[in-house]
Amino acid sequence: MKHQNTRVNDIQIESLTLRKETNRKRVGILGGGFNPVHMGHLIIADQVSDQLCLDEFYLMPSYESPHIDKKETISSINRVEMLKLATESNSKLSLELSEIHRKGKSYTFDTMKELIELNPETDYYFVIGGDMVDYLPKWYRIEELSKMVQFVGVHRVGSKPESPYPIIWVDVPLIDISSSDIRRKIATNCSVKYFLPDNVLEYIHKNDLYQGDNNYDL
Asked: In whole angstroms, what is the distance from residue 176 CA to residue 169 CA?
């Protein structure tokens, strides 16, 4: 059975009412390699947080992707530092570093189980791109995970607003930027201005990141 698309406006009204009646905290999470973080990530985080009336929103860098097509990243230290720079001007955005601290493969089920046990009064809204929705059935322990979090889908060109799992769909301005494109441009001395925050770009240049890089495909 595939679930129907859930309208954001209905969710906003429901969430505002719910927040008045309960003390539960509502937190959004966007996970990924952030190799590097860019404007597309930040726009998604800000728009989902605003449209769903969330209390906080976390960007959660993975330590090691659990996907079969393993993708390499630069040091987690550098990725975390860039995330700190990217979020410092927005008080609603912060970092969740549990996967970095835990190390090993970053399975979403393990992470969310840990976070829910530590924060039982918090409801989590886990954001995924529309292109990832079709892959949800392949996620590790997805049946249990789908009962632990509320998935939020971000519309992408060609994405279908239906899934075996309940998803809230959010419309976000289409920003066709990818970390892999940024890395390729930096490696070939092409401009990436406006693709990512200025302070993040300065950090990349200062630390000679992605120079001559042609291996990182995340």
From this structure: 18
